[in-house]
Structure formats: structure tokens, C-alpha cells
Design goal:
Blueprint: E1 4-5, H1 8-11, E2 21-24, H2 34-43, E3 48-51, H3 63-67, E4 71-76, H4 83-90, E5 95-98, H5 101-112, E6 117-120, E7 134-137, E8 140-146, E9 150-161, E10 166-167, H6 176-181, E11 183-194, E12 213-216
Parallel strand pairs: 1-12, 2-3, 2-9, 3-4, 4-5, 9-11, 11-12
Antiparallel strand pairs: 6-8, 7-8, 9-10
């Protein structure tokens, strides 16, 4: 089975439909499958439910799909970097299902592991727990959370082989591995595409059995969400120059 596609558009061919649920890896702008997000935008698919830690920023990442009003609902943990998100939500144009970050991660992991629901203390007695089933274990209250599945998962990996085995780089790993397991179909964009056997088996994070299609993105753009700089301290000039550096 050939999993490698010529481009993002062909990697998503036949998978997109209005009203579907999509999981998108990444945290902020780190490790986001931006090439695939752009292809989703260009497809024109709409009324999407998107599961992601956040919704990018204005004009970047998933924020691109807010600009085109293709997202109907977000299941997320944090959305504070996106003014368009706030505007659409306050105008009643966008639904939000907020999750504590750890709960969101576990809901995704549970979905990928075939676990339909689990109990957690996080959210007990708050609006997070409103309307959810509660039980007591060892004298403590817990709320039930459902596992999450998606029609499509899109993820970004640092390296992948043609069989779909994936390796992630440092913090860009974030939500990508659990989401790769929780999609009925998973499409991965990879910066470095290699042949089977080129990746040390001990380094593989996502086994290829979870990945259905791959697109090679050797020049992936990596945006900086918050650029923080400081003034350079003056250093001593070379002796005898009389010049401050």
C-alpha cells in the first residue's frame, strides 16, 4: 500500500466533507500541520468541529479556518491568542467546548485506546462538571468524561518513513501522537521522508499502522507565536581600541 501522496490536496482527497470532526495536532503554532490546514481551507469544506489544544492565532494555524468561517465548533483548552475566535464566539457564530488541558489530552488518548469514558476529579463542583455523570471512589467525587474520536486526524512529524512510522521533534511532539491514534483516518505531514528501516525502531513514536496517508513538506514554515527579545548588553571593546561594543 502506497501511503505517500504528491501534495496535501491529494493526501486529503476523498476524506473531507461538511460537518465532519477533525483533530489537528500542535500547541500554539508549534508542531502544527499547517500544510494540511491550508489544503482544508482551499477545499471549502465547512461546518467543521475541530479538536485541538487551541485555535492558532489570527491568520496562522487553525486561525486560517476561522477567517474563512469553516469552523462551527471548537473542542479546545485555550483560545486566548486569537481575536477572531473571541469575536466569532461573542457574536454567537462559533461554539466552544472548553476542556482542562489534561482532560483534553486524556480524552484524546482514551479515544485512541478504545476507552469510551473515564472518571477524573478535575472539574468536580465547577461548570466543567455541570450535567456530567458523577461517582464516588474512595470517598471522593469524580466526573465522567467521554473519550474523543475524529473522522480525520491531521498531524505534523519531524520524520517519517514511507510506511507511516513517525518521529517528532522535542516540544513539537505535544498533541500529535495521541491524535494520530484517535482518527478514523490519519494524515501526516513530515519534514523528512525516509525509507523503511532508516528509523531506529526504538525512536518511533507513532507506528505506521495508525497512519493512512503521508505528505512530504521539506520546507515547512515554523512561525514564532510570541517573539521575546532583550537589548544586547554592552561588552568590553578589544584593548586599545577605545570603542564600546
Amino acid at each position: 500500500m502506497n501511503k505517500v501522496c504528491a501534495d496535501a490536496r491529494s493526501a486529503l482527497a476523498g476524506l473531507l466533507k461538511d460537518g465532519m470532526t477533525i483533530m489537528a495536532g500542535g500547541f500554539g503554532l508549534c508542531g502544527i500541520p499547517e500544510t494540511l490546514i491550508l489544503a482544508i481551507r482551499d477545499s471549502g469544506v465547512k461546518n467543521l468541529t475541530v479538536v485541538s489544544n487551541n485555535c492558532g492565532v489570527d491568520g496562522k494555524g487553525l486561525g486560517i479556518l476561522l477567517d474563512t468561517r469553516q469552523i462551527k465548533k471548537m473542542i479546545a483548552s485555550y483560545v486566548g491568542e486569537n481575536k477572531t475566535f473571541a469575536q466569532q464566539y461573542l457574536a454567537g457564530e462559533l461554539e466552544i467546548e472548553f476542556n482542562p488541558q489534561g482532560t483534553l489530552a486524556e480524552r484524546i488518548r482514551a479515544g485512541g485506546a478504545g476507552i469510551p469514558a473515564f472518571f477524573t476529579r478535575t472539574g468536580v463542583g465547577t461548570v466543567i462538571g455541570d450535567g456530567k455523570e458523577e461517582r464516588q471512589f474512595d470517598g471522593r467525587r469524580y466526573v465522567m468524561e467521554r473519550g474523543l474520536l475524529a473522522d480525520l486526524s491531521i498531524v505534523h512529524a519531524y520524520m517519517g518513513d514511507t510506511e507511516g512510522n513517525l518521529v517528532y521533534r522535542k516540544t513539537a511532539r505535544n498533541f500529535n501522537p495521541p491524535m494520530a491514534t484517535a482518527g478514523k483516518v490519519t494524515v501526516a505531514e513530515v519534514e523528512h521522508l525516509v525509507q523503511p528501516g532508516d528509523i531506529d525502531p526504538d525512536h518511533i513514536v507513532t507506528p505506521g499502522v495508525y497512519v493512512h496517508r503521508i505528505v512530504h513538506v521539506p520546507n515547512a514554515v515554523k512561525h514564532i507565536e510570541q517573539r521575546t527579545v532583550r537589548k544586547r548588553e554592552k561588552s568590553a571593546a578589544p584593548a586599545g581600541t577605545g570603542v564600546e561594543v
